[in-house]
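Quick entry between incubations.
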Amino acid sequence: MKPMHDHAERDALPCLCCGSNVARCEGAPMPRLRSILRFVALCAMLFGLGFACARAGAGELPRDSTYHLAVPLVDQDGRAFAFADGRGRARIVSMFYTSCKYVCPLIIDTLLKTERELAPAGRERLDVLLVSLDPDNDTPDALKRIADKRHLDTSRWRLARTDAAHVRRLAAMLGIQYKQLENREFSHSSALVLLDADGRILARSDRLGEADPDFVAAASRALGDQASAKR
Amino acid sequence: MDARTPHRCTPALRVAAIAACAALSCIAHAAAPAYATIPATGFTSVIETEASAKPVQVAAYALRVEPVTNAEFLAFVAAHPEWRRDRVPSVFADARYLAHWRAADALGEQASPAQPVTQVSWFAAQAYCESEHARLPSWIEWERAAAASATVADARGDPAWRRQLLDWYAKPSSAPLAVIGAAPNLYGVRDLHGLVWEWVDDQASMMVTSDSRDQNDPDRLKFCGSAALSLRDRDNYALLMRIALLSSLQAVDTTANLGFRCARASDTLVTP
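Done. Structure below.
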């Protein structure tokens, strides 16, 4: 057996080489080599710039903001957006999947009940984001069907999907545990997570089927604070 | 200046860049890390709770031959300063992240270049692997590679093999970490046992019950002791300890004995 993975290794080499050793390589004595290396450095810089641009807006975030995590999302209407785009408004985030028969409808019930406990003016300033754990099956159409079926206010609610790697990262960030089972079901914990306008976690609740008074109180406070900050 | 206008990343240029680095003896640091191909197989994890559990098909993949070292992680942090310990967002790593380094950009006496990097969070490990065009291995990928001795693909039933693993777990963890480079296993992979614990991609879901009747009972997750008792292979203490440790961690946690290695898809379809 051949232990080395030649192809992948070749692919990875230029980037690593230039990324970490540009400064050292720049002292090259040969002018031709130097111009090549300068160009490679430029390449690396442009690549880095592109990366930085993809994370734009992260500059001013507090260090404990979940919006440091870059998660590309697509919502029920097929619109692409980033997790951190929620910045500026308080938001409840949870994770679910559309083919789930028992717990996920309960998550939506709980969210609706939680909203109902809030003052109408505050509710209008609250966003809700539900991210699917099941990127293989939850297309925008599938998400749209649930949004329609449950008459969700999609001016404030977004049902969204991302890829499997980002599902795992977002779940880790939010403290939601899940595991895909053989029968296309997911076993998962059902936390609702309240984020402030800067993406900091203010409160979480594992209670299902009814509004959690502590969570509602935290949401009211967040929305009240936000209103006073605006004035 | 060169007559050539530098606006394309041509393959020739890439080759030139590699050659240039090699010529300047940058290669020692810049060399791509070695990955070993782990062939596809049917494999039953010790994590399976039922004695009758059927083997899961694990696809072929490539696993890093050695854990990521302090030197490698230092180079990563230099290239991606957002992962320096003084800049990393607190949502990505706890306060002890890389705390054994002398400075945010220097190793110092507590961290030798060839030791595996430890005190890194799951998020930091993921980001490092991404920089290597890789990811963290899943638990079953890790376990499947780590089941191999120097001669056998699945040595888990061998009492001598088990004793060898337990000898390491019995060593006090206060002693300084050894450097990487123990004898390779059947696939040419080193240091899967005997050096550090390693992050896996799905660490958070390892102990989630797979019985859908218990779906969404988060209390069950809090009792890893009772869940561990229901594991299929109780004699495999070494692996059970590892599972218990990994599943008790949050993604921001760091510990003095927890490092990582990366994995990626194998584009050669190898079957045994």
